[in-house]
Each structure stands twice: as structure tokens, then as C-alpha cells.
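Changelog note: in this version the structure field was regenerated for every chain. One regenerated record is shown below for reference.
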Amino acid sequence: MSAAMDTESTYSGYSHYSGHSKKAHRQGRDRHKSPRSKDGSRSEKSVTIQTPPAEPLLGNDASRAEEGQDDNWGETTTAITGTSEHSISQEDIARISKDLEDSVGLDCKRYLGLTVAAVLGLLVFLTPIAFILLPQILWRDDLEPCGTVCEGLFISVAFKLLILLIGTWALFFRQPKADLPRVFVFRALLLVLIFLFVFSYWLFYGVRILDSKDTNYQGIVQYAVSLVDALLFIHYLAIVLLELRQLQPMFTVKVVRSTDGESRYYSLGHLSIQRAALVVLENYYRDFTVYNPALLTASKSRAAKHMAGLKVYNVDGNNASGQSRAMIAAAARRRDSSHNELYYEEADHERRVKKRRARLVVAVEEAFTHIKRLQAEEQQKAPGETMDPREAAQAIFPSMARALQKYLRTTRQQQYHSMESILQHLSFCITNNMTPKAFLERYLNPGPTLQYDKDRWFSKQWTLVSEEAVTSGLQDGTVFVLKCLDFSLVVNVKKIPFIKLSEEFIDPKSHKFVLRLQSETSV
């Protein structure tokens, strides 16, 4: 058994709420001790998203009974301090050191790739200029005079290099969005092609021009112009391979979150598995609702309650397998009544949510009405006596804090909204003259992950698991998994079917008809 080291950390909040229970710490340790993927395949890599640690304002134990919580958070603004105990084992230390080693390797690989690309790009732009200047420096007196055509080629080279510089900056000089486990194949092929191309031009230049000291300066300038033209064509090829090729949708991917089964569908073009995984993660943070593990504890606590109600007595010394069979049989007999308990639990929860939602809506509307009265009074004051939006938010927040706290605890969203974030959102709504409904939109319905701060995200590190090589392209039936610490995303790829459309001609005369009216009608 690994030894644990206990550390103490202090935190401060703006409420009188009870400290984290031992159950919350056990759940936090279990979440952080979840084993990483043991898949030893060569295609399993990780993309790390750096997120700073933080702590929620409200209690993080969503499964704790609501009556056992102190509801004085919304009635005071005094700051209190407390202590919380956390433990870390040797297994966690080894995993953290492994993550640090992986991050160092990823940083070295990223900077090495950027250095190689920068050196190669500098060589590409300096080569045409060197082709033109070297004859002027080495054998200037032997060169033939440069006429009007030669001088016009100077202008052509200058503008083409400017266009190439702008295009290269727009295509390649972008801030990287993620560290992929493998290199981008098309980009690496383009770098190799450019290197071979420039090397062959230098080789020909050294053999045919430098060694023989060619005196035809116009021909040398035309040789440099041909190099720049070829580089422009390579840049066009890079646009086709890196940008245009993936625009046409060819595959439909289904993304399913393993914990709650939430799913989305996306259309992708010709991409490798690692780049498709990157697109899936970008859409995940935008489209999927934020992952809330507190919503999954209800079923676990209900199952634990059922098993806790079973008692097995060992009278005649039976073994453990007999006790297990007895417990399974008793659980099967109680299965018929479990659905009634689930029904009443859900109905009671919905009733409490509706009740506290109504209280929250009324409290927020009254607070915003008070803001309007304050604004009307401040218009009559001197300019130096008016309150800024931050002060106005702090003035009306205590009137709605209690109702907001109870609603967030009931819906198990308290760990995503801190005191500071609520005040910032409230001051933002006051500044932009937003309605109470616009203020409550963030709290009444859980939003996507990007809506919350990064310190509220549970997905800090992603691991790509695939049976195929991550650099291979998508195929029909490809399945890969994106794992993080608490859940995983299962991605299933289906090819868009070939659609055949046929045309059917309709004669315009076929729509004509004759309406005959009888002069005599029955009465």
C-alpha cells in the first residue's frame, strides 16, 4: 500500500457554509486517482490542455443532504477562513512526474518543429536575393551590362517575394491550438519538398554559375525569377493540401460522452485521425453541456442505499460465495419496488427545482427593479456621486444570493459558479442594460464548457486511443476514443453515402384541365 502525505491548504470564501466533508475528499481523491489508459499501443498519445487549479465557492459535495448545509451564504459578505485536508499517494506522485516528462517532451518537439520551419523559411526567402547579389560581389567587372529587361525583372522578383511573404505569413504563422501526438504528414512533406527544391537550385547554381563565373547577368536574374515562380506554385499546393482538401464533407462522426450518453453529429472531410480528434474536441467545448459529475451520484447513492438495506446472517458457516448469492437473490426480489422509488425521487426533485426556480426569478426581478430606482435617483445626483456597475452589483447581490445559492445547490451547479464570477456577470448585465431573464440564462440551464472558466473544466488532459495509426486517414467504420481523467468521448466514423439524383420531365400541358359548368342547377 502506498503511503499518503497529508497537506493542508487554506481558502477563503464570501459565505458561512460548512466545510467539505470527508466524503467529498474521498470523491476528489478517487477522481484524481482514476487510472490512466493502460493501452500499450503505439498510437495512444495525449494532447494536454493546461488549466490552473481552483476551488469552487459553494460546497463541492453534491450528494450531501441539502438540510445539512448552511444557507447563510447569501445573507452576508464577511470573509471566513478554514482548513481542508487532502492526501496524495506515491501513485499520484509517479503519475504527476510522468505527466511532467510528457509535457517537456511535447514542448521540445514543438519548438524543434518551429525552429526547423523558421530556418527553412529564412533560407527560401534569402536564396533568390543571394542568386542576384553573389555575381555582383564576386565578379562584378566581368558581368555583361543589365538592360531594361533585366531591371524589369528586379521589380518582378521584389513583388513576387512580397506576395510569397504575405501568403506564407497567412498560412503558416498561426498560433498552435494543440500539441498533436504525431507530425502533420502533409506539412512535413511540404517541408521536405521545399528543402529538396531549394537544394537542387543551389546545386545547379553552384555548378553552372559560380564555378564557371557566368557573365550573362540577365540569365542569372531570370534563373532567380524562375525560383520565385516555383515557390509560388508550391505555396498554392500547400493551400490545396492543408486548407481546401478538408473542406468537402466526406464523413459523418457520432460523438458520445461515456458517462451520461450525450451525443452530437459532425461532418468532416479528408482528415487524419489525430486532426479529426482535434476537430471533435474543439466542437465538444462549444456544443456539449459542461460535464457535471454530481448529477451521476444520485444513481450510485440509490444503489448503495438498496444494498445497505440488505442484511445477510452467516448461521451455519457458509462461505462468501453463498452470501453473495443470497444478496443477489434479495436484490432481485426488491427490484420490482425500485422503480417506484425512482419515480417519486425524480418527481420530488422536479418539484423542488421548480419551486426554487420561481423564488430565484422573483428575487432577481425585484433586485433589477431596485437597480432601476437607483439609476433614477443617481440621475439627480452630481456626477461624482454616482455608483459604477460593480458597486451596484454588490449592492443588490445580497437580496438574490440566498435564492441563487439554493437553486444552484438543488441543480448541483454550485461548483461552476464562484462568488466573483456571479458578481462579474451581474455587473456586466447592469452595464449593458440587460433584463433579469438575460441574467438568469446562465444559471437556469447548464451551458457549454466554454461558458465557464477553465478552472471549472474537468477535462485537463486528453488521450487519443485508436487501433489504427493516428496519422492515417478516416475510413468508414473507424472508431477511436478520446479519454480524459473523468470520462471519455467515443467517436464512430461513417462515410456519407453516394447520392444519385435523377431528373423527371413533367409536360406543362399535363396540368391543364377544363371546367364545365351546367346552366341548370337543382333547387
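Spot check on this record: The CA atoms of residues 118 and 332 lie 68 Å apart. The chain has twelve helices and eight strands.
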